[in-house]
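Need a sequence for this fold. Nothing fancy.
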């Protein structure tokens, strides 16, 4: 019985993460492929190559990205941006999606600064990420505060807290390592870079 349990747990630890990672990877690619693949396939018929839809999606996004930097097409895209931000409810959905994507990619990327924030009246500390240092644009009384996102373990949820700048300790840790550490409950800690003294 112990032999079966031991090997089952080994399977869970080694095989399940591989299966889940491959599954997520395949599902994401299938989604991206389906965006344009279903429109391209009828035209190509027998010449259709599986996963050509994802190439078309990448090409389309790249072309649209280039057009956004051109004068005439850029003006149109900025006009569309203003229209979406003026429609009730739509502006909330659009701005949240836009800011969320911008926080992960681009020059204004957030989650670059890993910080430690003390849990109130406990002496314990949480790992968080500074998402903005301009909180005073929301309320002027928050001039000396920063917004810190604190992710929760085993899920992509979290809380955003406003913390006095003086109570935030910036730490020299890569954002990817810090996020992995928190999401795994501390189990995926970074490997030691050298022998301890």
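Here you go.
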């Amino acid at each position: 019985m112990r032999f079966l349990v031991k090997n089952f747990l080994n399977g869970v630890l080694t095989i399940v993460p591989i299966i889940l990672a491959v599954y997520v990877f395949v599902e994401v690619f299938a989604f991206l492929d389906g965006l344009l693949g279903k429109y391209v396939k009828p035209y190509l018929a027998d010449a259709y190559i599986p996963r050509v839809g994802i190439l078309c999606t990448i090409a389309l996004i790249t072309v649209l990205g280039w057009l956004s930097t051109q004068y005439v097409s850029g003006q149109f895209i900025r006009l569309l941006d203003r229209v979406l931000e003026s429609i009730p409810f739509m502006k909330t959905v659009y701005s949240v999606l836009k800011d969320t994507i911008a926080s992960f990619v681009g020059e204004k990327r957030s989650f670059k600064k890993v910080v430690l924030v003390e849990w109130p009246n406990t002496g314990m500390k949480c790992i968080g990420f500074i998402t903005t240092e301009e909180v005073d644009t929301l309320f002027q009384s928050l001039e000396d505060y920063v917004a810190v996102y604190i992710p929760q373990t085993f899920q992509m949820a979290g809380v955003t807290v406003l913390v006095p700048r003086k109570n935030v300790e910036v730490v020299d840790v890569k954002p990817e390592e810090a996020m992995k550490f928190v999401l795994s409950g501390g189990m995926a800690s970074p490997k030691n870079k050298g022998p301890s003294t």
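For context: The first strand starts at residue 114 and ends at 118.
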